[in-house]
Amino acid sequence: MRAYILRRLAQSVLVVWAVTSIMFFMFRVMPADPTAMLLERGLTEEARQALLQEWGLTGTLWDQYVAYLGNILTGDFGSSFLYRKPVWEVLTPLIINTLWIAVPGLLLGAALGAVIGTAVGWAERGGKLERSGIFLATVIRGVPNFVIGIALLTIFSSTLSWFPGFGMGDPGATTGFARYMTLDFLHHLALPLIAVIIYFMPENLLLMRSGVVENRTEDYIELIRAKGVPQRRVAWHAARNSMLPLITWLFPALAETIAGIVVIEIVFSWPGVGRELVLAVTRQDYPVAQAAFFLLAVMIVLANLAADLVYGKLDPRVVYK
Amino acid sequence: MNDIQNPAASAAIQGRSPWRAAWDSLRLMMQDSFAVAGVAILILFVVTALAAPLLAPFDPFKAMMTETGRLARLRPPSGEYLLGTTAFGNDVLSQFLHGFRVALLVGLVAAVAVGFISTVFGVLAGYFGGWIDDVLMRITDVALSIPTLPFSIVAVALLGPSIENIILVITILFWRNGARIIRSAVLTERERVYVKWARAAGASHFHIIMRHILPNIVRVIFLWVTMSVAFAILTEASLSFLGLGDPTVISWGQMLNTAFSSGNLRTAWWWVVPPSLALVMLVSALYLIGRAYEEQTNPRLRRR
Amino acid sequence: MAASTPPRAGTRPASAATLAQLAELNQRLAWKPAARLQVEGLSIGYSTLRGRFHAVEDISFEVPAGTNLGLVGESGCGKSTVIKALMGLQPANTSVSGRALLDGQDILGLDDRGLRDIRWNSISLITQSAMNSLDPVYTIGDQIAEAIRAHERVSRATAWARAEEMFALVGLPAGRLYEFPHMFSGGMRQRAVIAMALALNAGMLLADEPTTALDPIMQSQIMTRIRGIHAHMRRSMILVTHDIAVVAETCENTVVMYAGKMAESGPTADVLERPLHPYTMGLQNAFPRLPVPGAPRQPLISIPGVVPNLLLPPPGCRFASRCPFATDLCRTTAPPVVRHGAQVATCHHTDRSEEFRAAAARPETWRNMRGAA
Question: Are the beta carbons of A266 and B303 separated by less than 8 Å?
Answer without folding.
Answer: no
